[in-house]
Design goal:
10 strands; 295 residues; 5 helices; five-stranded antiparallel sheet; elongated; Immunoglobulin-like
């Protein structure tokens, strides 16, 4: 069962609009949206958009998702600004950038470099004076030790307003939206993020736990940080009746509620799962997780 929320913008195939409390869709319940494999699920007519996962070709993306192109470390970000400043001149006309945009970014790059250089000098100076303070207080010093000499500060440059990163992101957004932009240009400007390669599917498997809530079993699964590479999870259940593991659901929203009524006597229900991409299982089966229900 898939949870539904009051502010959901998902499209109800029965109405073609966002889900509402009075939807004619028989799979909409107060507990959530029934999915294939749930007790009481009503198959969707062929004339409607199916809610069940597509059984056509894999939806695996041909382009790997990328990390944020902005460098997190101050020194790396300063170097990134310098790379952009030194290489944007060849593309100014192609992207229709104004002289003010170019000089503004250059000023930001220069001032951040000045601030970081000044910070480095002050940090080193602070360490030297702290060591000298200890010597002065304790009265011991190696031969030839003398009071630190003031270090020269870097040559000042015109200050800029706060918000260098925000301005840089805004400028890069304009460039990346331009028809003339491509990844090769982005690499030369230092504004392409590193590609994520995804998990090692030779060992990657779902991890989940089980809890009883409201008289139902909640399968608490997540994407484990790999949602960009996965489409859904397939869950099997063994209710201890001798049939072994049978299909329970294919779920696309983390956290699946098994709405099967609990037995009158105590039983052990076991679950296992595997991730899917389109119509293909991918990775490894999870460990079997069990819970005692009923009684």
């Amino acid at each position: 069962m898939k949870p539904l929320f009051w502010d959901s913008t998902e499209i109800d195939p029965w109405t073609g609009q966002a889900y509402t409390w009075d939807s004619p869709n028989p799979n909409v319940t107060w507990d959530g949206l029934l999915e294939p494999g749930d007790p009481g699920f009503v198959p969707y007519p062929s004339t409607l958009l199916p809610q069940a996962p597509s059984k056509s070709k894999s939806k695996r993306k041909t382009h790997m998702p990328k990390s944020d192109y902005i460098k997190s470390r101050d020194d790396e970000f300063a170097a990134q600004l310098a790379t952009f400043k030194n290489n944007i001149g060849d593309h100014t006309a192609a992207f229709g950038l104004s002289p003010a945009q170019i000089t503004g970014q250059a000023a930001d790059a220069d001032y951040l470099a000045f601030v970081l250089a000044s910070q480095e000098v002050c940090s080193n100076c602070s360490q030297q004076w702290t060591a000298w303070k200890d010597i002065v207080r304790d009265g011991t010093a190696p031969p030839g030790t003398a009071q630190p000499v003031d270090a020269p500060m870097p040559d000042p440059v015109p200050a800029v307003a706060p918000g260098i990163e925000a301005r840089f992101r805004a400028l890069v957004k304009i460039i990346k939206a331009h028809p003339a932009y491509n990844a090769s240009i982005g690499e030369s400007l230092g504004i392409e993020g590193a590609a994520h390669t995804g998990p090692d599917f030779a060992v990657f498997k779902p991890e989940f736990d089980l809890v009883l809530t409201g008289g139902q079993v909640l399968v608490r699964w997540t994407w484990q940080g790999q949602s960009a590479f996965l489409d859904m999870i397939e869950i099997l259940v063994d209710r201890g009746g001798g049939a072994g593991f049978v299909f329970l659901a294919q779920d696309t929203t983390p956290g699946y509620v098994d709405a099967t009524p609990l037995p009158a006597t105590a039983q052990k229900w076991s679950y296992k799962a595997i991730f899917r991409v389109g119509d293909q299982r991918i990775g490894q089966w999870s460990d079997v997780v069990s819970i005692t229900v009923g009684g």
